[in-house]
Amino acid sequence: MTDRCPWAMSDPQMRAYHDTEWGVPERDGRALWEKLQLDGFQAGLSWSTILKKRDAFREVFAGFDPEIVARFGEADVERLLGDARIIRSRSKIAATIGNARAYLAMRDAGEDFADFCWGFVGGEPLRGDGVHVPARTPLSEEISRALKWRGFKFVGPVIVYAWMQACGLVDDHLAGCWRFRAG
After folding, report:
1. Among 60, 89, 111, 154, which has the minimal tally of Cβ within 10 Å of its Cβ?
2. What is the pLDDT of residues 95-106, one digit of tens each?
């Protein structure tokens, strides 16, 4: 049996996520934005809950296409609130719509979302020590502030740090994990 980070040991879907996605550097701006939205929906819940609902989220949020999501109105919010396949939180749904608008505003101002994100880490993943996995860091606080300044919601420093881990901006695989320092 391959050693993995403990959080990925008990569930086949979590193992697959750990082995193929978590900590893998994501360089596509739209995919980075999608993962940030999913991490916002996770607030107060487990990641396994989000993984189980991820396909439904992608369906109801038009593949997380910011151009489409930014045009969602109140009828769309009500439709989403009625869909039991996703997390039905008015504030998280509204944040996703607003975040699509913020993403597009950045783009329209000439600011590439991927360049923005990766600029905080100098273009390369930060490496954890393999022992300690913080819930937030001074850098996640800085990124959170920068996102909020641009109009993003549900991007507190804990959510941002979880997103940084998911997108490979930081590699927090533990020393006993086969992915530790694997890139």
Report:
1. 111
2. 999 999 999 999
